[in-house]
Write a structure and sequence with these properties.
This protein has 163 residues and is an alpha+beta fold. The chain has 5 helices and 8 strands. It has one domain. 34% of the residues lie in helices and 31% in strands. InterPro entries: DUF3145 (IPR021491). This is DUF3145 domain-containing protein.
Length: 163
């Protein structure tokens, strides 16, 4: 059963753009030619986004392929599909990769068992708040938000996984 998602490359050095396209092409087993624009937050960087269609798990494969360049900021989403939750991956230089389950509305979801573990290990209200912020990827969201806003209205490339 196919699913779909989006790859947002929020910022990458110009020299890495072609490598990003090759990485996405390897995962999708299809040629990729993204429309790169200047990232307004940092004009020395470029940004691009593409919608993709493929089998469940493609989002994780795309995130794994892109994280090999620690200097790029990116997000990969995969929509929920029958029997599977959606996923969001966020990468920020110096912070690494965040992975969260994503609901149909795009919100990060925290499962019951994880919530119980967080509540059991938190010794004070501040510790509980910190653990919940970490589980929600709040720090990644905060660092990516200016880059997301700068991409409003940018062109989107549509891609389909061949295999």
């Amino acid at each position: 059963m196919p699913t779909c998602g989006v790859v947002y490359v929020h910022s990458t050095p110009l020299a890495v753009c072609q490598h990003v396209e090759w990485a996405i092409a390897r995962v999708l087993t299809a040629p990729v030619n993204l429309h790169w624009t200047v990232q307004q937050v940092d004009p020395s960087m470029r940004r691009a986004e593409c919608s993709w269609t493929g089998r469940a798990g493609t989002g994780a494969e795309l995130a794994a392929a892109l994280r090999q360049w620690p200097m790029i900021r990116f997000e990969v989403t995969e929509e929920p599909s029958p029997g599977l939750d959606g996923e969001r991956f966020m990468h920020v230089p110096g912070r690494g990769l965040f992975h969260g389950t994503m609901g149909a509305s795009g919100d990060i979801q925290i499962g019951e068992d994880r919530l119980r573990a967080i509540m059991a290990s938190a010794r004070a209200p501040e510790a509980l708040a910190h653990a919940l912020e970490k589980a929600l990827g709040t720090a990644w969201d905060a660092e990516l938000e200016p880059y997301r806003y700068a991409g409003d209205g940018a062109p989107v490339t549509l891609l389909t996984r061949v295999g």
